[in-house]
TrEMBL record:
InterPro entries: Glyco_trans_1, Glyco_trans_4-like_N. Residues 270-290 are annotated as: Disordered. This is Glycosyltransferase involved in cell wall biosynthesis. The keyword Nucleotidyltransferase does not apply.
């Protein structure tokens, strides 16, 4: 089978997930082409895995001219594919728009998809204006058909482009205003243009069905096997300047979706924990020996993003006990040293870092949003998004109660052992490709 992945700008879980799928498909003898910005090849190294790569600038923000060009290039790249799997709303919508083009001409002869990737750049450079204008006309036809449905099926889809399209949506729409309106249109394009939509949370699935998606299934997005820590807990605590202080860890991109303003609110007034506690690093997030309570928590955030300066300004102005570490490649070390792991997000699908925390057997406090409750399966404390008092109380209780911490750590380890692995994800993807190609429900 010749599988083409399309993805946009990503530096995190989406790219890692595509790497996982590409590796599994290549091991099984399938041909893989990855279509996306140069930055994803630089970061994830798809060519080094044995896949072909075709550079197409799928940005993370709408841009009419660039998007029209991207649609034309995507169409050229995918002519030899047996199935197309787009990841993310932007990539999925642009690929669905590319599906408005005429179907492949003539029978396919199984030419290696590497040649498709190699040709894509040259083809895109030749006749760029003509291709862009053709793409624009086709895109407008598809957008028009989004609002002119017949029997629940995108009218321009099948019969115009014969390649089945599977789209995995890794995130929900959280923006408002004009950006939110644009993304709302893209959601409809995906819902009515894809043969199958895979979603990372039940609420996202409900939205896609309401928008007209004909086949919506749960996505299988596992975290990679956890890596062992390379440093001792004491070394990590010394680096953080934590000494004997309990460490509350958050692993997140510094962006609006992650709810880090709530975390700072918790840190502002919830950093003193009464009672006894274990030291960090043991099986329950603590270790041998006990210390007197009343010590200040240290909140540590691993990750970077557009809100770093804003968050740091508030931390400095209010003298909050919060460290912004930036991007880190030693998350296993940080997990081992953490007393508790916290997710204050506005919305999440199946965050890989949360799966990693569960597999590491760490106590978790998280917001009850998106796919988090299903992912945790009862192995942690859930609080409403934005409820600072509830999150503050949960953090204080877990850190201050060694028995509760042990219970949550044991529950997390059990849940972590139940989570799907890479083989499960590849098999689920192949099943989606086969049934989409056959036009059947499984």
């Amino acid at each position: 089978m010749r599988v083409a992945f399309v993805l946009g700008t990503t530096s995190g879980g989406t790219g890692r997930h595509v790497v996982m799928l590409a590796e599994g498909l290549l091991r099984r003898g399938h041909q893989v082409l990855v279509v996306g910005p140069d930055s994803v090849e630089e970061q994830f190294g798809f060519r080094a895995l044995g896949a072909a790569f075709a550079p197409v600038p799928v940005s993370d923000r709408p841009h009419p001219v660039n998007d029209v060009r991207a649609v034309a290039r995507i169409r050229r790249c995918l002519r030899e594919a047996d199935v197309v799997h787009a990841h993310g709303l932007r990539a999925g919508a642009l690929t669905a728009l590319a599906g408005a083009f005429p179907s492949r001409t003539g029978p396919q002869t199984g030419a290696p998809m590497a040649r498709a990737g190699a040709r894509a750049g040259g083809h895109a450079r030749r006749g760029a204006l003509g291709g862009a204008l053709t793409a624009l006309a086709s895109a407008l036809r598809v957008l028009a058909s989004v609002f002119t449905r017949r029997k629940g099926v995108l009218t321009s889809r099948r019969g115009a482009w014969a390649v089945p399209l599977v789209v995995t949506l890794h995130n929900a729409l959280t923006a408002g205003g004009l950006v939110g309106a644009v993304y709302g249109v893209l959601e409809r394009v995906v819902a009515r243009g894809a043969d199958r939509v895979l979603v990372v949370s039940p609420d996202l699935g409900d939205r896609m069905r309401a928008l007209g998606a004909r086949d919506v299934r749960a996505a299988v997005v596992p975290a990679p096997p956890p890596r062992a820590a390379t440093r001792s807990v004491r070394e990590v605590l010394e680096e953080l300047g934590a000494a004997e202080r309990p460490v509350v860890l958050t692993v997140a991109r510094l962006a609006q979706q992650k709810g880090l303003d709530t975390l700072l609110d918790v840190a502002a007034e919830g950093s003193q924990v009464p009672g006894e506690r274990d030291r960090p690093g043991g099986a329950a997030g603590g270790g041998p020996g006990e210390a007197e309570g009343g010590e200040e928590l240290l909140f540590v955030v691993a990750g970077d993003g557009p809100l770093r300066e804003v968050l740091q300004d508030r931390i400095d102005a209010e003298r909050l006990p919060v460290l912004l570490l930036g991007n880190r490649d030693d998350v296993p070390d940080l997990l081992a040293a953490a007393t508790l792991v916290v997710w204050p997000s506005r919305w999440e699908g199946q965050p890989l870092s949360l799966s990693e925390a569960l597999m590491a057997g760490k106590p978790v406090v998280a917001t009850a949003v998106g796919g988090i409750p299903e992912l945790m399966g009862g192995a942690g404390v859930l609080v409403p998004y934005g409820d600072v008092e509830a999150m503050r109380a949960a953090v204080r209780k877990v850190v201050g109660d060694p028995g509760e911490r042990r219970r949550l750590a044991e529950a997390a380890a059990r849940r972590g052992a139940e989570l799907p692995d890479a083989e499960d994800a590849v098999e689920a993807a192949l099943a989606a490709y086969r049934t989409s190609s056959a036009g059947e429900d499984d």
